[in-house]
Amino acid sequence: MGIKIEGPDVSRRQTLIGGGVIGLSMMMTPAFGVSRELSEQENLKMTTFTTSDGAEIFYKDWGRGQPIVFSHGWPLSGDAWDAQMLFFGQNGFRVIAHDRRGHGRSSQVWDNNNMDRYADDLAELIERLELRDVILIGHSTGGGEVTHYVGRHGNDRVAKVVLVGAVPPLMLKTADNPDGTPLEVFDGIRQGTAYNRSQFFKDLTIPFYGFNREGVEINEGLRESFWLQGLAGGIKGQYDSIREFSEVDYTDDLKAIKRPTLIVHGGDDQIVPIKASAHRAAEIVADATLKIYPQGSHGLAQLQAEEFNKDVLAFIRG
């Protein structure tokens, strides 16, 4: 994450109103090859549940079939998985995405914003919904959450695991992890979050999606979606979470995974550099397949959604 945040001179946001929006919607075509449509009778709900320590966790639970549970990255929410929730729901899966505590629409708690509790929240969600044969998919910090879930709660309910731009085994540079990211980078993230969160999140979108690379077109809608999701969360939970994605060592959790695991990473990920993460994780997980998107950014699941969705679908069905 040698995170150099260099925001371009961004032109003023253009707003579509009235008939412009209607005209645009009439011209739009579906983004995915739909194998089946979700009917009105399908399970389409958004709700919350209360954890054992009193936090309210928001989640979406759509469709029917083998369950896929999505864990989002920092500082986002379950909405980051929109393109995947739609695609996999349309292809015969039950899709579930929650907002991590302190993020999105879940409780903005003061205490217990740590990876142990994140993993336990995920476990309580899975148990509450009585899920089995689950596909766990985690992006970035969510990859840490998924990995730590297995480390704490085992493999019994899990069928397969997908880690996307995930932080395990360890992001922080140490004597034993020389390819990691220096502590001062994470201190800078703490500083930006604590004192200028709104602008920091907006600037972070540039390296996050690789919009600072030559020839890459800036997607303003994606930047604004990131910003809105980030500001929907609570500053305390997001601040505490920085330690969880940077300083927690997930090596033992990776060793605990006994299910087929797809590790997906962008070769040009500027947030979670591939050498200290995916390359090492693929060596640690017993049954791992490493898939690298050569020019992929940290946000490849959004920018390369069609290719990513097809690759994950093939892995699940393989």
Automatic annotation (TrEMBL):
Domain AB hydrolase-1: start-end pairs: 67-298
SUPFAM superfamilies: alpha/beta-Hydrolases
Entries under InterPro entries matching the protein: AB_hydrolase, AB_hydrolase_1, AB_hydrolase_fold, Epox_hydrolase-like
The keyword Oxidoreductase appears for this protein: yes
A matching Pfam family: Abhydrolase_1
UniProt key word Oxidoreductase: yes
Gene Ontology molecular function terms on file: peroxidase activity
Record key words, sorted: Oxidoreductase, Peroxidase
Family: Belongs to the AB hydrolase superfamily. Bacterial non-heme haloperoxidase / perhydrolase family.
Name under which the protein is recorded: Non-heme chloroperoxidase
